[in-house]
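S2.1 Query sequence (4-hydroxy-tetrahydrodipicolinate synthase)
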Amino acid sequence: MAINWQGVFPALTTKFTVEEELDLPAFITNLQAQLDAGVDGIILGGSLGEASTLSNEEKNTLVQTAVEYVDGQVPVVLNIAEGATREAVRIAKEAVGLGVSGLMLLPPMRYKADERETCTYFKAIATATDLPIMLYNNPIDYKIEVTLAMFDELIALPTIQAVKESTRDVSNVTRLRNRFGDRVRILCGVDTLAMEELVMGADGWVAGLVCAFPRETVAVYKLVKAGRIEEARAIYRWFLPLLELDIHPKLVQYIKLAEVGAGIGTEHVRAPRLPLVGTERDRVLAIINEGLANRPELPQFS
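Output structure tokens follow.
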């Protein structure tokens, strides 16, 4: 299935039982909520999906479940975040057989590669598959920045088509657009900057709080792209305290708790993560409950 790298792409959480096993019924419940809201694709196995705690078999199970359930309605994108280049290449080659439509690539994990090493890593994966690729540029969390000069080199490969823009510098959208035009699709990867980047010309939004609030996320995107800025801004102002849950080291626990409040998830996580307790849990719940109590009525949009 082709990907045009536009619209809302939820970075889905991985649902677990209290025993830390995959909870596929809960996963499907949330997946259906995303489809009902009109998302444009889904991303599996990202940081929000607790990928570092999943076995390869579990990742494959999630992908196969999603591909079968989605049945071509939207593209399914698999995240690759490996420490070894050959392991990343192996996963990329196997991904086609799993039925995924594209890949999202993090830079080498657990090693701060320099520019030459990072480009070589991305190229090795991009030449091992025909699947379209979105690079994840997040120097804040992963300590490696994909610079404009690196993009110059990388987009010589036709499979590299998009970037999840998470530098937290809104002006980088304009830099990318000025340098590459539409050759590189730009998807905002930071919830608290999404409307700003969409207004500045980003093509899409790789979203986190969409896992709990899919309709509102899609509404902001659709309204901005329709030029209905004031209506989008009203939703976004309501949304911002919730979106700020996405920029915390415990974003997984925070967003899963929001999924519970919205009735489309569970808060079970896999150790070493632990469920929230005490004053921290109370504080996050207060934000979620305030948002739910004042959830806006959404305008009509196509």
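The chain has one domain: 7-293. The chain has a mean pLDDT of 97.
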